[in-house]
Design brief:
By secondary structure, the chain is an alpha+beta fold. The chain contains 5 helices and 8 strands; from the N terminus they run βαβββββαββααα.
Length: 174
């Protein structure tokens, strides 16, 4: 995995709701946003603590803000969009430790099931539908319907595979 590290030395927040108990200067947030737009950077997925910095003062003068962020460019986010920045409990530091969670890429989805119309004319099709539709499944009515359709899909795969080669066999015979 390629690592993209860009350091932007800004102690400014990006939005007005990124700070508690202290004013947010809109011109400074605009400058930070313009900088990120110019660099074509976007924030990674985030989890954990919202505010990444605390000045650790007593009660009413305590300020929380989100000044620490992780960014990636468009290409990096497309390739590693499953990467997540997790903000931990600040502990003794003023800043929250940040963990970059690099988990395996989510599995790709299966190819969608396609039922060929010619399969419905196959003599075994009706018996497969009757058998699968007659099975009992637990759950809500929607879950039962989904389970029955999934069972029919697995039951008719063999017919689908057989019939998908049917057109090839027909062309070969011609």
């Amino acid at each position: 995995m390629g690592v993209l590290e860009t350091r932007v030395k800004e102690n400014n927040v990006l939005d007005s709701d990124d700070k508690i108990r202290s004013p947010v200067l809109l011109e400074k947030t605009q400058h930070s946003r313009d900088c990120l737009d110019g660099l074509q950077l976007s924030a990674l997925k985030q989890a954990g603590w919202k505010y990444t910095f605390c000045n650790k003062h007593q009660d009413s003068s305590r300020v929380y803000s989100k000044i620490d962020r992780e960014f990636g460019n468009i290409k990096w986010i497309q390739d590693y969009g499953h990467v997540e920045a997790i903000y931990e409990n600040p502990g003794v530091s003023n800043h929250s430790p940040i963990l970059i969670k690099v988990c395996p890429r989510p599995p790709t989805r299966q190819r969608p099931f396609k039922l060929f119309h010619i399969v419905m004319n196959h003599p075994e099709f009706e018996s497969i539908v009757t058998k699968m539709w007659g099975r009992r499944f637990k759950g809500t009515r929607m879950q039962q319907l989904w389970a029955k359709l999934k069972a029919m899909r697995s039951g008719s795969r063999g017919l689908n595979a057989y019939m998908s080669t049917y057109s090839q066999k027909l062309q070969k015979a011609r």
